[in-house]
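Service request form, structural biology core

Requester: graduate student, group of Dr. S.
Request type: structure prediction, single chain
Budget code: on file
Notes: please return the result as structure tokens.

Sequence provided:
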Amino acid sequence: MLSHFKVMKTIACVFARGGSAGIPRKNLQDLGGKPLIAHAIECGLTTPGVSEVVVSTDDSEIADVARSFGARVPFLRPAELASHTAPERGAWQHAVRFLIEELGAFDCLLSLPTTAPLRVTSDISKVLEEFQKPDTDVVVTVTPGRRSPYFNMLKLEPSGHASLVCQSVDIARRQDAPAIFDMTTVAYAVRPEFVLSQTPMLGGRVRIVEIPAERAIDIDDPIDLEIVRFLFAKRLQK
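Core staff response, request fulfilled:
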């Protein structure tokens, strides 16, 4: 089923800056005896169809750790693309330009954030499968939405009163609302030329791959990290 990946050149990138507001040195935090970044690297290296794993970082320690786990770090990210206010798409564009200049054209940039370490290789394979469909710029991973703007999400009006976010239809039951999804950080597959365009990521032709919620937790603060450590330990026990 995965044999057609041989005709598509996919480069996995792990974007890992040194600073982190929520958890100091987040990308190097321990999870099961390995730094967080190692889990993203190893998942990329073991996914069929991935040519190599490249790490984009501004931090020399992260670069050394990444190399020790099999990733390539051919550049250090400029400081202006590594601040907490810098949009990540700037780092993506920097990496794509460097890789095209170094290696020539490739078909797919696969971003594997360090903050979703409970992903498995089959999740990534499904993303790459979906990416091969015609008329696709971006594939994002999602989980079923916990709240629906058609049913139980409210906005505050200038009058001070609250109302439904979406009032275009009268929906009395959650089951009658259109399917809603939450984006996750498990993986993003993007056409390199689309990364370099000025079109917003979700303004392109976007497809989705649904991931079980227990594999899609995003580490944003210390509580998230403790939850992930608990679930990871349970996985190892099995």
